[in-house]
Amino acid sequence: MMTTFSFDLKKTDGKARRGTLTTPHGVIETPIFMPVGTQGTVKSLDPVDLKEANTQILLGNTYHLMLRPGSELVAELGGLHKFMAWNGPILTDSGGFQVFSLAQGEARGEGSNVGGSLVKIDEEGVTFRSYIDGSSHRMTPEDSMRIQMNLGADIIMAFDQCPPGKSSKAAVQQAMDRTTRWLYRCKDSMTSPHSRLFGIIQGGIYEDLREAHAKEITQVDLFGYAIGGLSVGEEKEALWKACGHTTQFMPEHKPRYLMGVGTPDDLLDGISHGIDMFDCVMPTRNARNGFLFTSRGKVIIRNGKYQKDTRPVDENCACMTCKTFTRAYLRHLYKSQELLYYRLASLHNITYYLRLMEEAREAIERGEYARFMAKRKAAHRGE
Amino acid sequence: MMTTFSFDLKKTDGKARRGTLTTPHGVIETPIFMPVGTQGTVKSLDPVDLKEANTQILLGNTYHLMLRPGSELVAELGGLHKFMAWNGPILTDSGGFQVFSLAQGEARGEGSNVGGSLVKIDEEGVTFRSYIDGSSHRMTPEDSMRIQMNLGADIIMAFDQCPPGKSSKAAVQQAMDRTTRWLYRCKDSMTSPHSRLFGIIQGGIYEDLREAHAKEITQVDLFGYAIGGLSVGEEKEALWKACGHTTQFMPEHKPRYLMGVGTPDDLLDGISHGIDMFDCVMPTRNARNGFLFTSRGKVIIRNGKYQKDTRPVDENCACMTCKTFTRAYLRHLYKSQELLYYRLASLHNITYYLRLMEEAREAIERGEYARFMAKRKAAHRGE
After folding, report:
1. What residues in B contact A329, CB-CB < 8 Å?
2. Cα–Cα dist B183/B171, whole Å
3. What ipTM, to 2 d.p.?
4. Domain of A310?
5. What is the pTM of this model?
6. B336 and B233, same structural domain?
């Protein structure tokens, strides 16, 4: 296996960035969106579907995979790539976000709706209960690294403490300081030559904390850096203010990942603030709930107006769903709760997100990103 | 559209038959198994999956489609083929079986588990309640024909009365006589040049009734004939005795369809009794419940012994599931109730059924069907 990792910033357009991120499993053109494969599968899609949707890198959820089927088993079976038959790049999260969000009853991974679990945080790590069977588990920064190395992800995320969105400044400061201490422990135990570590910048919506933590985290020499602790309940305006404030303190020649964001418009905004990588369950989860993204805004497929609509979901989309099926048929499948619906809808939404990223990359290359963004946002509003 | 229909019996081997059935949507090599697409989709599979599994003809359920989305809507949208983007042949059942089996709380279609619905049968037709919303519906032989013509199936089934498996001889006789009277009404109202009608032979497990009804039904000049009223709760031995007794009174040069059967071994038995066509929800329903058919018998994928099993479900299978994924991964998906599992498992089981039919056809062509059947049954028992 190649162990070459690199990030090449090819062009900027305002703060928007066009780059390539090289991993042993392939080259990723940025800006990019990463579909979420929580339990070793992007819900309802197979690897061929993912390739057809132009997926360049997947996100796997450490929390879910450590509990089922277990990271040792995945390692024994040859790693997550082989296990799920996905030969492209994979990024795994640290598991921390799910552990903490379960404490607040709002897991971001796909498929975990068990809230109110008992979570205890101390300086060493976190103790929590399994969402599957209630069994008690312990996770330290060292455990998270070991598990992610077992999974064999190309990009491994540092184990951080992500406080709730409306935390006090003191609580955010405390989580941020611990995140820094944990980062050093993560780095020390990240021994695999097949993976690279990303650090995570916390600091909530507080500009001074964001600046301080960005400086602390980027002082550690890592392959890339993420912005965590956003999209956790704060206002959109506060999110972009914090994001924009943070990116200015991040190194230019390393990839920047905004975690857990967001809508198509959010991705456009993120790119305008200099973000290179995104992940979110929104395209797949919304698909399953009947919300389809199109170049002219959302299609709520259950609506009666689609009953006899023989058009594809999006006339500008080249995905298998749009090439093959009508809105009328998708509505029928959705109302009938047919399994085929979930795949067709997920395939479309993922294709839509990834095509949007492709168009954004092209716009940056042309030096027309601002114009492109304004145009797409207007189209999304139906203008 | 071509309106050519024909059946060509190419070879016999004992009672087993090798034929070709031509319809406007394509040629079907028999013996053949028809995957069941209850609600305008074979659960979890798309048309490309079905083609890859070597599907030659699908079955659609009139009962489900008339209630949702409604046959007029399907007609307006261009018919069932276009609606579901399946350009191969389709056979629709009459709706009668589901109506009657719902009265007994055991619908054979995929996805209808609502029992105890009120069903009233009279000479004119049947009154029943929708399994979706409890609304009252009326279906006569004329309605069934109209609905099936709306759907635009290549092969349309006569509206028959199928009595429960353990009915008294008098009750079977009554249902059988009514089925004959209804067949004449069906034939009179079957006006589409794009479809052909199959009659259904009833008579339960009573040999004299089977003989009498086979003679009555086959006296009507139709494109093909089906054996109904079996696989409804009677013993296997009684089923095959009744089936074998019936086929001898069926015309040699018309296709013979045994409705609602069955396991892989049942298909082998049916072929040995001179059956050309089969349908059953078993491969797809069993797939979803974790039962996978293989050349060496059943794989119950939840079993712990598959936890680290890196073999495909069936080493002799060329389906995408077996070419791509391990038993260990499928077990993980099944236990995690992941949507991808249902598709991968259904694709495999349907492929298995259709490959078995292909091998049966080859065995008949070689004049070795009996030997082939014995060998396959032994393999299914794990011998």
Report:
1. 40, 77, 83-85
2. 18
3. 0.96
4. 290-380
5. 0.96
6. no
